[in-house]
Amino acid sequence: MTTANDIVSRERWLVARKELLAREKAWTREQDALSAARRALPWVRVDAPYVFHGPDGERSLLDLFTGKRQLVVYHFMFDPSWEQGCKSCSFVSDHFPGTVAHLAARDTALVAVSRAPLAKIAAFRARMGWTFPWLSSHGSRFNYDFHVSFDPADVAAQAVPYNYTVQPFPHPEGPGLSAFVREGEAVYHTYSTYGRGFEPVMTTYAILDFTPLGRQEEGLPFPMSWVRHHDRYDAP
C-alpha cells in the first residue's frame, strides 16, 4: 500500500489530532448556530388542498402529520414514466427506517412523496424492503409548488427553478426535503432544502468522512455515480 500521508509517532499524531479537534469543535458550534437560525425562520401558511394517495386512500397534507406536531417530507425522485425510483434518492431513503420511531418520540412524522402512481411506488417500496410511509402526489401540484418537479419546457430551456435559483437541470424531477409544522389544523411550511442541503441525512457519507479514503468520488462522472440500488451492488 502506498500513501501520501506522513507516517509519524503516536505523540506527533496526537498533536495533529488535537489541532484538527479545535477545528471540528468550531464547526460543531457553527452547525448549532445554523440550526438555531433555521428554527427561527418565518413560517408560510399552506392553504392549497393537496391530495396524496396512500395504501389507505386519499390523504391531505394535514393527514400526513398522523397527529404529530411536525412533519418532514422527503421529495423522492420518481417520475410517473419511470419503472423504478431514483438510485440516489434510494440511497438517501435507505437511512430512514431506523429513524421513524425516534422522530415520532420527538412529535415528528416522516414521509416520502413522489409523483409516480401509487402502484409503482408500492412495488418499488416492497422490492427495497422499506416500511416508512411513502405516498403519491400524482395529479397534484405539490411537487411543482415545492420545486422538485419541473415543466418539460423549463428542462429543455435549461431554466429550471431549483435550489432557489434558475439553472440547467438534467431531469424532470429533483430531490429535496421540506419541513412543516401545524397549529391545530393550520399547516405551515417552515423550511426546504435541496442539492447537498440534506446531505446530513445520508449517514453513509458521514461514516465515510471519518475514514482516510473518504468518499472516493474524485474523478467520477458525478459524485454519486457509484451509488446503486442496495439490491444491485452485486449485479454486473
How would you describe the overall organization of this protein?
The structure is a single chain. With 236 residues, the protein is of the alpha+beta class. 29% of the residues lie in helices and 20% in strands. The protein has a 6-stranded mixed β-sheet. Strands 2-3 form a two-stranded antiparallel ribbon. A two-stranded antiparallel sheet has the order 7-8. The radius of gyration is 20 Å and the shape is globular. InterPro entries: DUF899_thioredox (IPR010296), Thioredoxin-like_sf (IPR036249). It comes from Nannocystis punicea.
Summarize, please.
This protein has 236 residues and is an alpha+beta fold. The protein is built from 7 helices and 10 strands. Helix content is 29%, strand content 20%.
Low-confidence residue ranges: none
Written as H for each helix and E for each strand, in order along the chain, the element string is HEEEEHHEHEHHEEEEH
Q: What's the main sheet like?
A: 6 strands, mixed
For the termini, the CA-CA separation is 27 Å
Shape: globular
Strand proportion, as a percent range, falls in 15-25%
Helical content class:
25-40%
User: What Rg is obtained from the alpha carbons, in whole angstroms?
Assistant: 20 Å
Widest sheet: strand ordering: 1-10-9-4-5-6
Structural class: alpha+beta
Q: Which terms summarize this structure?
A:
236 residues; alpha+beta; Glutaredoxin; 6-stranded mixed β-sheet; 29% helix; DUF899_thioredox; DUF899 domain-containing protein; Thioredoxin-like_sf
